[in-house]
Amino acid sequence: MRAVFQQELKEVQSRLVELARGAQKIVTKASGAFLNSDVSLADEALALADSNEEKALDLDELVIRILATQSPVARDLRILVSALRMSASLERMGSLASHIAAIARYRFPGSAIPESLRPTFEEMAAIDQELASKAVSLLENTDLDIAREIQARDEAVDLLHRKVFDVVLASDWSENAMYTVDVTLASRYFERFADHVVDISAKVSFLQTGEW
Amino acid sequence: MRAVFQQELKEVQSRLVELARGAQKIVTKASGAFLNSDVSLADEALALADSNEEKALDLDELVIRILATQSPVARDLRILVSALRMSASLERMGSLASHIAAIARYRFPGSAIPESLRPTFEEMAAIDQELASKAVSLLENTDLDIAREIQARDEAVDLLHRKVFDVVLASDWSENAMYTVDVTLASRYFERFADHVVDISAKVSFLQTGEW
């Protein structure tokens, strides 16, 4: 029974890694769509987000089945409850990235980014992609050094998010309301994406150390 | 053991109702703060959101303890897993409403709403408060008529959310970028708040009927 259970936990882990890889692909394509007004990348991001949502639901069903058949307690139970939450975060990351892709799609053939904010968004998109890649590594290896790196990179995203507002609210901002709306929402989505990676790393750290 | 378990499920239900009442209070105070530039209401909303977050964490711990001691299966297990998710939604609703309060606080003594959008936001805030109240009733009585009403009211919020963008992106929009940012984010928070009520009602319906 214990061997079966260990096998099942491995399966949960590998599905979480797969979901994280999905979120990484979605944010990569969504960033490309957003930065380069690329509609076909946007469509790929939207389709991948749907498929990631289905995979998250499948994982949830697997976890519920394991809870029912194995009646785990203590740390094993916490691992499975955390898996449900991480699955929700990974699904949400795909969904947030797909909203970024949708903005690009909506503004095509125009760009959703004014030139003055391009470097800021390039950096934000790069860090979100890096964070998604770190989420994959963390779920594969549960290395707490990665958890600490994630914390630091999230702070960089928060600074860039605030910088977007500083630029938009400065007296020399002369772009139209459409740009203002697009960059406000896109920045919010990038920032929330990073928050979810932090949530995931907090859960992995908790399972390793018992401390939040 | 079964009697103890039924007692525990009752406790979970009453804590979910309490969290929903908390979310209702937070969105009521946040709406007042946002519509009337009332900083003391904003502070109350922010403090309540912190306390709701703690209550949600306490509920999660209770659910994990019940899972560990009762090893529920089938519908009982699904009720508890759903409770974890509803707890997350109710906590998030408080957090989203507190972001609305924070916008009001940030713009004080000015208003975050231009007059042209005041009626739209009044309606949106009223429906979100109504939705929170319906979430309380639904969690108390698991009445599926309420679940259907929630669906319809959420559609009304989506229309108002789109209306905000229509107004902001119209050629006669002449407000400054600060207003554009504020109303874009506030509208998004109101809309996400309503989405979470729909998520909760879908879970209650599923537990009652076995169908999504």
Brief summary:
The first copy, chain A, has 212 residues and is mostly helical.
Q: Can you put this structure into words, describing what you see?
A:
The structure is a homodimer of 212-residue chains. Chain A is mainly α and 212 residues long. Chain A has one domain: Methane Monooxygenase Hydroxylase, Chain G, domain 1, CATH 1.20.58.220. In chain A, 87% of the residues lie in helices and 0% in strands. Chain A is built from six helices and no strands. In chain A, α4 runs antiparallel to α5 and α5 (144-169) packs antiparallel against α6 (177-209). The radius of gyration of chain A is 19 Å and the shape is elongated. The mean pLDDT of chain A is 96. At the A-B interface, α2, α3, α5 and α6 of A face α2, α3, α5 and α6 of B.
Low-confidence stretches of chain A: none
Specify the biggest β-sheet of chain A.
none
User: Could you spell the SSE succession of chain A in H and E letters?
Assistant: HHHHHH
From the spread of the alpha carbons, the general shape of chain A counts as elongated
Identify the CATH architecture of chain A: Up-down Bundle
What distance lies between the first and last C-alpha atoms of chain A, to the nearest angstrom?
A: 31 Å
CATH fold type of chain A: Methane Monooxygenase Hydroxylase, Chain G, domain 1
Task: Give the amount of beta strand of chain A, in percent.
Answer: under 5%
- Helix-strand category of chain A: mainly alpha
Oligomer: homodimer
Radius of gyration of chain A in whole Å, from Cα?
Answer: 19 Å
**CATH first level of chain A: which class?**
Mainly Alpha
The number of domains of chain A is 1
Most extensive chain contact?
A-B, 24 and 24 residues
Count of DSSP-assigned helices of chain A = 6
Mean pLDDT, all residues of chain A: 96
The tally of beta strands of chain A, per DSSP, is 0
Fourth-level CATH superfamily of chain A: Phosphate transport system protein phou homolog 2, domain 2
